[in-house]
Design brief:
410 residues; Alpha-Beta Plaits; 3 domains; four-stranded parallel sheet
């Protein structure tokens, strides 16, 4: 086996190595998303994988191919959470000492789970890139083997086993939508499905999705080489990287058909929609493909599959995402309504909201607001609504009654 090449044969070898460790995760025929796209649409549920994400696959295959001498030296990795858990779990199964660098502020559930798998966790640095530098330094000082989260042929091949499962379960798939961080996942899947399709005399389109706030792939493709960006803030911590890998980039450049980016509101909406429509808990990065579908960014050509790559989400973040997703989808609105300080004004607004069918969830009535005269008050009221059209109806009804509502920015 060519040690530097990622081939179908290498991915098939990875699948044999992963038997009994990684699960062959299920598919869900997503009727709601099928109706949106107008073609049969499936979801590959890697959020139900052991450790909660696909990362177990690449980590296990990489560690399984270490020599006995390398295993004795231990391994070191850097991750915001999913790769950390994959390495920690694989190391525990193989009896290898693991040290993991995680950024300060990493999601608590991911940090606790990593420790729970027996790894030594060091929270240093504020970004994955800083943690990677710390892990590299640790490897140089101690002799531990560095397990990169995406830029190694074995890691890519391990992730590529998902492609084998997709082609076995949906042999007529025409489009596969994959979240993209550093590129190991989409590179491995693209090698697998493109190779298998070529053997069958068919074709498969592979589409990558990145968070717009942290999307180094589009400028890298434009430049013809990996380009480093300044990462913005994103809820999709699992796919937030500043630069593609030197191993992953050529595979993506040559095999991936299209790349799209999604905004934070779209990611929040995707998480909320998956929770409501499919009863699946998926982290924002793992829901990037669904965000692209909901955003109308995926052109339907035939049977389509969206990979849900992970489900490790902090409950506190999930709470905020649900709230944000409700606002983004027009399901929740906070109004600021200036009122004359006369008896009955609050009751009038309340009656109008009831007429409009808007359910009041919170009310703040105050005279203490900058810009108010002595004869004015402000009513801040939060309501549940049925969508953007219903919100417009609520605003129109209030305005027709002589009020001047302002929608508060969340």
């Amino acid at each position: 086996m060519n040690e530097s090449a990622v081939t179908l044969a290498r991915i098939e070898d990875a699948a044999r190595s992963l038997a009994g460790v990684a699960q062959h995760t299920p598919l869900d025929h997503a009727s709601y998303f099928s109706s949106l796209l107008g073609v049969p649409t499936y979801m590959k549920l890697e959020n139900l994988q052991r450790t909660g994400s696909f990362k177990l696959r690449g980590a296990t295959y990489r560690l399984s191919r270490l020599t006995d001498a390398e295993k004795a030296r231990g391994v070191v990795a850097a991750s915001a959470g999913n790769h950390a858990q994959g390495v920690a779990f694989a190391a525990q199964q193989l009896g290898i000492a693991a040290t993991i660098y995680m950024p300060i502020g990493a999601p608590v559930p991911k940090l606790l789970a990593t420790r729970g798998y027996g790894a030594t966790v060091l929270t240093e640095g504020t970004t994955v890139e800083e943690c990677l530098a710390l892990a590299d330094d640790f490897a140089q000082r101690t002799g531990a083997v560095m397990i990169h989260p995406f830029d190694h042929p074995d890691v890519i091949a391990g992730q590529g086993t998902i492609g084998l499962e997709i082609m076995a379960d949906v042999p007529n798939v025409e489009t596969i939508v994959v979240p993209v961080g550093g590129g190991g996942l989409i590179a491995g899947i693209a090698v697998a499905v493109k190779s298998m399709a070529a053997l069958r005399g068919t074709s498969v389109r592979v589409v990558g999705v990145q968070a717009a706030a942290s999307a180094p792939l589009p400028p890298s493709l434009a430049a013809g080489k990996p380009v480093a960006i300044t990462r913005g803030s994103t809820i999709a911590d699992g796919i937030a990287v500043a630069r593609l890998g030197t191993v992953t980039f050529p595979l993506i450049r040559d095999l991936v058909d299209d790349v799209v980016t999604v905004e934070e509101d779209q990611l929040a909406r995707a998480v909320l929609t998956l929770l409501e429509r499919t009863k699946l808990v998926v982290e924002p990065g793992g829901a990037a493909g669904i965000a692209a579908i909901l955003g109308g960014l995926i052109a339907p050509t035939g049977p389509t599959l969206a990979l849900l790559s992970g489900g490790n989400i902090d409950p506190m973040l999930l709470q905020r995402i649900i709230a944000h997703g409700l606002v983004a989808s027009g399901r929740y609105m906070t109004l600021r309504v200036p009122l004359p300080d006369h008896p009955g004004q609050l009751a009038r607004v309340s009656d109008l909201l009831a007429q409009a069918g808007a359910n009041v969830t919170e009310v703040l009535h105050t005279r203490h607001d900058l810009g108010l005269t002595l004869n004015d008050v402000v009513l801040q009221v939060s309501v549940e609504t049925r969508g953007p059209e219903h919100q417009r109806e609520v605003l129109n009804l209030l305005e027709a009654a002589g009020f001047h509502p302002e929608v508060a920015v969340s």
